[in-house]
Design a protein that fits this description.
This protein is mainly alpha-helical. It folds into 2 domains: 34 residues; 220 residues, MetI-like fold (Orthogonal Bundle), CATH 1.10.3720.10. Helix content is 79%, strand content 0%. Helix 9 packs antiparallel against helix 10. The radius of gyration is 22 Å and the shape is globular. The two termini are 33 Å apart.
Length: 260
């Protein structure tokens, strides 16, 4: 292939991409080589880390489920209806993505000190509780799920729904019987992305739910707790376990055919 200007441009872009991937490969390789497999397994057998793992899997699944329930109607609305102020609403839905994580946790903590928040906590306690872990994960993960579902519905043609409307279906029936079956891959992708985002959530959980051992401790807070006492080997083991889970989620998303 002759090295003309166009090919040189592509070569430069390829080198930049390769450099970035090599950088991440070196980071993960150095982390993986830090300790032995036996030491990883020994760390992961500890009661605290097993509890954090179980709690993470449960809370991430619950938070992702609620995020999907919210993302489907909101994503459908944003993709099918044109109205005044839509661009502002679109921007508002992305606020949890751009806010610093610690600020999200602080907002939750302050809200539940207000009169409305205290009334809610009389029914369901959230502050420094497992339910608070789920809420902190949901608040951020929902924004990613909404973005995914909005993109999914935007890529689906609205014509089949319009045909259903002409045949006597209501808008809800058209959405339920036509749009949702067509968007099932996107729904799986949205759930997986929300789950992965919940798994990595740290700041809001630490501020709002705390990091109490054998209570509200999840995998990200485990890494922080182990680092705070100088147990780098345990922090590495948990981090690598989270990397493995993240890779599995990425494979699941790619299997749906969705691009995110």
């Amino acid at each position: 292939m002759p090295l003309n200007r166009s090919n040189l441009c592509w070569l430069a872009l390829a080198l930049i991409t390769a450099g970035y991937l090599i950088f991440w490969a070196l980071l993960l390789g150095a982390t993986a080589a830090y300790s032995t497999t036996d030491s990883w397994l020994q760390v992961l057998r500890s009661p605290e880390i097993r509890h954090a793992t179980f709690l993470s899997l449960v809370t991430c699944s619950v938070a992702a489920g609620f995020a999907l329930l919210l993302a489907v109607p909101v994503g459908y609305l944003m993709s099918r209806l044109e109205f005044r102020g839509k661009s502002w609403l679109d921007a508002a839905l992305d606020i949890p993505i751009i806010l610093p994580p610690l600020v999200v946790g602080l907002c939750l903590l302050i809200f539940f000190q207000t009169k409305i928040g205290k009334v809610i906590e009389m029914a369901i306690p959230f502050t420094y509780q497992i339910s608070g872990v789920v809420l902190a994960q949901f608040v951020v993960a929902a924004a990613f799920a909404i973005r995914t579902m909005r993109g999914t519905f935007q890529h689906l043609s609205a014509r089949p729904e319009d045909v259903a409307l002409t045949l006597g279906c209501t808008r809800f029936q058209a959405m339920w019987h036509v749009a949702l079956p067509a968007a099932r891959r996107g729904m799986v992708a949205a759930f997986c992305i929300a789950w992965a985002r919940s798994l990595g959530e740290f700041g809001p959980i630490l501020v709002f739910a705390g990091a109490t051992r054998l209570k509200t401790e999840v995998l990200p807070t485990t890494v922080w707790l182990e680092l705070s006492v100088g147990n780098l080997e345990a922090a590495v083991a948990v981090s690598l376990f989270m990397v493995l889970l993240a890779v599995l989620v990425l494979v699941a998303v790619r299997a749906t055919g969705e691009k995110v």
